[in-house]
Write a structure and sequence with these properties.
The chain is 30% helix and 25% strand. By secondary structure, the chain is α+β, with helices and mostly antiparallel strands. It has two domains: 13-293, 4-Layer Sandwich (L-amino peptidase D-ALA esterase/amidase), CATH 3.60.70; 301-423, Roll (Ubiquitin-like (UB roll)), CATH 3.10.20. The strands form two sheets. Strands 1, 2, 3, 4, 5, 6, 7, 8 and 9 form a nine-stranded mixed β-sheet that branches. A six-stranded mixed β-sheet has the order 13-12-11-14-10-15.
Amino acid sequence: MKEITLIPFEGYKYIEGGVCAAKGFKASGTYCGIKKSEAPDGNESPFKAKNDIGMVVSDCICSAAAVYTQNKVKGAPITVTRKNLEATGGKARAIIVNSKNANTCNADGEQKAKKMCELTANALGIRAEEVIVASTGVIGQILPIEPIEKAVPVLVKELDYNGNEQAATAIMTTDTVKKEIAVEFEIDGTRYHLGGMGKGSGMIHPNMATTLNFYTTDCRISADALQEALSEVVKVTYNCLSVDGDQSTNDMVCVLANGMAGGSEIVTGTKQFEIFKKALYIAMMNITKMLAKDGEGATKLLEVKVSGADSLATAITVAKSVVGSNLLKCAIFGADANWGRVLCAVGYADAEFDINKVDVKMSSKAGSIHVCENGAGIEFSEDVAKKVLSEDEITIDVSIGGGEFSAAAWGCDLTYDYVKINGDYRS
């Protein structure tokens, strides 16, 4: 079961709609044939096969912000999107994104990414620089542009204010479920909406991952303020996500804000900005958890919460160290309360704290076990531990002292199926 448990937040309501939850956003998705059709009937129309290209469009120009992979090797779509946002001063109107081919490490990569923007712009009657382009899939294979040329008119024709699911499925690669979220909230009497979609299952590790994520909101906010909010929130969400320790080349998180809900412009350093930033955090945190739970071959979501740190940086560093331990991931898969692997990962974290004050608890909906106190093991029931760790969502709480800072990181167990999936990924 891949659905995550949604945690309630006062003043914020979970709603349906994904990237179409905010006013003025339409989306679509279709199959264009970048990879061989998976349709069971060879005579079936290719546009009825699994979606591999999607589009999101706003009714008006938007403020736009983005963050990208920190890998030195970057996909051509990232280069083109960066240039587009620089050219428009942080403005965008549309997103076009394909799966099955990353358009990375190709001599004609930028040319193809620009062409995708031009095709989209011409079909919508907007500037090519107002288009965000993204790709995901196999690295190092030439991206065929002909199927995309045929698909863009279909995508534009099928744009719908309820088309979020079609777009969300179009960006899936080894994902087993689509990943969408949306929240409704209020600022000074105006009701706003913020929603998004994401993809990712493997080649995921801080800082950013093999994950494409797109968020939309009907708030009024400048591109600079939007970028500040996104850059802050990504540090405690996507940058705290690890499935397998591999950092990809095409990672991107983009946010579009069209202001169509009305109300006053949200500016930094205000209570209104903090309310908006929390909405962005709720959406991004939940998709981060969805990505972790749908890790390639995964059977369990692992959340590591670190408290008692003397700084946020220390808390994040320790949480990421623990969630990234492959030995711990294997223990979680086997429902083995091998807490020594937690202490080991805490110990090699690049941070300063007193190891003799470390406390560790493991919990799930089946209960909780206290396994370590003051840096040393304590007695616990192995039978209870087995029940606790057999659930599909596991939390490890690590206290490292009396500080006031805390952080969380998310990952999953490491299973036999991970190797099977990645042993023949290109096929």
